[in-house]
Amino acid sequence: MEIRLLFKALGFILLVIIGIPSNTYILLKFTYIRIAEKKLLPTNILLMVLALVNLLVVLSRVIPQSLNAIGLEDLLDDSKCKLVIYTYRVSRAMSICVTSLLSCHQCILIAPTTGMWSYLKQKVTQNVLVIIIPIMCINLIMYRTSIMYVHAKKNSTSPYTLHLVYCDTDYLTYINYIVNGAFFALRDFLFVGLMTLASTYIVYVLLCHEKSIKGIRSSDRDKGKSVEYKASRAVILLVVTYALLFGMDNCMWIYTLTLSNASPSMNDARVVLSCSYSALSPIVIIATNPKLQQRANILQRRRLLPWNHQGDSGSSIQVNCISK
User: Fold this and answer.
1) Is the CB of residue 194 less than 8 Å from the CB of residue 104?
2) Where are the domain boundaries for CATH 1.20.1070.10 in the chain?
3) Which fold, 3-288?
4) pTM value?
5) Region 99-118: what's the mean pLDDT?
6) Are 323 and 301 spatial neighbours (Cβ–Cβ below 8 Å)?
7) Which H helix or E strand runs over 163?
């Protein structure tokens, strides 16, 4: 096997190993919380939707890439190609939109409770699902027309064909090729800009809060920090991860628009970049979301509690400190 193909196979298999279990864990954990507690915070609803669409991205794009990388050929016919590519494109678009919505939602939450911000806090928090559904419908409609260019892989000589492992997207003419590419790249950059502005405002508010508590003693300062910092850290990290990976992906996409026929290595690199967010973002979510860490903390306390029964006051203090 060529070195390029070996690294390609290892890269996609690694994304599968990371992406499927981590996104599935988030979905199952939030489902359990919803059943047990009878409610789910709006932020956690957004994270749950993000995990779902990220899982669909891994299933519809990374798994076919992995199977192709290990040598399996011609697995999909025309109808299956249309289904897989449509699922991938809608899921990827939803991943972008939900991440942007998540950053805007967090921006609204930490904004001062005055005037318009107060109104937005109430309306957005109460209608997260109502906002998500129209976004999903728009993406379903937008990509419905794009799959007319998709078919099973064949020996196409057209310079306006994107080769997507088992499937090809043949735009037939230069105009279709440029318009489709530019439109969706512009959409991505628009959402990147939106989430970047929201995240910049979040950082600004946190810095202002930091200055306002400088004179407070350190223990109270840490308590003051915890609410804003822990609530906003995941959003900022997600936006940074998204901006880096999808930013590079779209830069490469724009570059390929200037080429008559992109090389396989460049296409592979673009696929890795476009799918990495779906596999890596769950790690950020799990590492920063208190609800997802709750079970691990309970197990940790159970392991430490037996020391408490020995009557050793020093051990009891250690347990309490760790529990905090």
Assistant:
1) yes
2) 3-288
3) Rhopdopsin 7-helix transmembrane proteins (1.20.1070)
4) 0.82
5) 85
6) yes
7) strand 161-164
